[in-house]
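thread: overnight batch results

M.L. [08:02]
morning all. the overnight job finished for the chain we discussed friday. pasting input first so we're all looking at the same thing
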Amino acid sequence: MTRRPVVARLVALVVAAVVAGSGAGFVAPSLDAPVAFAAPEPLSSPSRFVPVGPERLADTRDAVCECTRIDATTIRVQVTGRVGIPTGAGAAAITVTATGSAAATFVTVWPSGAARPETSTVNVASGQTVANAAIVPLSDGGAIDLFSPAGVDLVVDVSGVFVAATTARAGRFVPASPVRLLDTRETGSLAAGAGAAVARPTEVPADALALAVNVTSVGATSAGFVTAHAGGTPVPSSSVLNPDGSGAAIAASVIVPMSPAGIALFNSGPTDLLVDLVGWFTGPSAADSGEGLFVAVVPTRLLDTRTSAPRLWADGTRELAVDLSGAAALVTNVTLDRTDAAGFVTAYPAGTGRPPTSSLNARSRNAVVANAAITGLSDRGLAWYSNAGTDLVVDMTGWFVGSPVASVAPVPSNAPVPPRVLLIGDSTLAALDVVTASQRALQGMVPVLDAAPCRRLVRPSCRSAFTGQVPDTAVQSIARTPGPIDVVVVKAGYNEGTSGFQQAVEEVLSAARTRGARVVVWLSYSEGTGNQLRTYTVNNAVLTTLRDSGAWPELVIADWRTYAATSSGWYSGDRVHLQGGGAWATADYAARWVASALHRPCPQPWAPGETVDERCPSPDVAASQRGTPDLRGLYGF
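M.L. [08:03]
and the structure it wrote out:
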């Protein structure tokens, strides 16, 4: 049988990535204040976990999809009464895979017959295959509905259900301090089809039903899939995540059935695999107790930094106090939005030691990515750490019964650090060295200005008639600049023709990437005169093509050509080089673009006396609406 490389039937826990609005009946809290709200009405009684299969419930790619088409955008899938699932189950652990979409879309899953929530379980771009999982409450009839506004094929797998229980021996969740069980970056990358065994952790009893783990693929060199299953059992026709071959880190929070030997992984293509333990589900030898039973609730938003500042800054931690009696661990969806760069976020109990693991990974700047997280709760609530900076949306869909752990550590920092910005220019930027006072407008950053007449991007630079020097190329400037570089601003390339320009830009971008720059802000080429105008027009189009290709997510085009087109007193007669007012305008423009690209507050208001935008908009958009800033009023030159 041919295995379809889609995420699978071995569960992951809840991923309900929010696309709009808040959870039903819940208002997002302000900053990090304690969350004062009545616990959402439970949608299920306390329940124990019962493994199922994993089994496929529906696949719209098949002639008989095992689903009911409600309308053009919605299908219904019966869960109970099939493949051994008891009719009394109140919730199901499912994995939903979206594939074959011709446009970006999302998928929402909810109990059939109820009002559709303003959340999504899967977010997928055109041409992608993406899976996420959820613990979904079932309707009284045991069914779920799935909605997508755009055409997409859907695959639904079930790996377990939750059955009402006052107490239980088997099927209770036991949270664990996240610990890494496997990292093949240390033991050797896995060749295609190699797979890996993950031994049962010593703290987990041999008869435990399943492990809750986070599985991450890193460095995959071809598109494929990864499957997780009980050790010693055949590899199932399913997968838990789908690497795309880009090498980007892709994570999935999954519940994997366990044998006494542990669990096993299978990888269809070469990759490194990481496995982090989150907890386990007890077996029949466990004590009879009510702790660890699951309670499902209406999806409830706990945090959205897009509307409740501050965002999660690079190397920062955001805590949220949650006052929820009788909960030991929360089942949440964690969504990253408008990420500053490729990086990761770790969820953990507030006031405890941050584990050396990750909960989800963003592959690039401005990514949107979600993953489930079962996170232990402390008496101070929850915490999230980011190594790169991101907006954060957290939705709760349930909890496991028990008591929170004690917090012992102080509240960590979440403060933005001014970025170190290398500004590379030729003679069109050198006015900032002549009108040195204009550098006062380079605010909100640690600027490193390197503007030299006659500079080229890659080819050997010419000798300047003004300085008598042959400057470094832009690539050499990036390589030789000491210290860290967070952002590169480029106002160079006026000494280039059209031949070889694309390759030269790519070499500059590659050099910036090698130095760890999160963003490259490239100012488009201004008007010029005569043949220059055609050259600059062609090269501006090349910049746009590179940005839109997706190969360089760090590339931001600042449309200086349009921004400065109607200016008075900024240009000399050649409409390329700057006069005094243009030096101030360029410094202010660069500072605003750096703030906008890094999702930071503007360094200055648009005019004196106005409020500074907390999330700096594109200065190009602002200028199209209001004209250019009041530079003399702001800087007094």
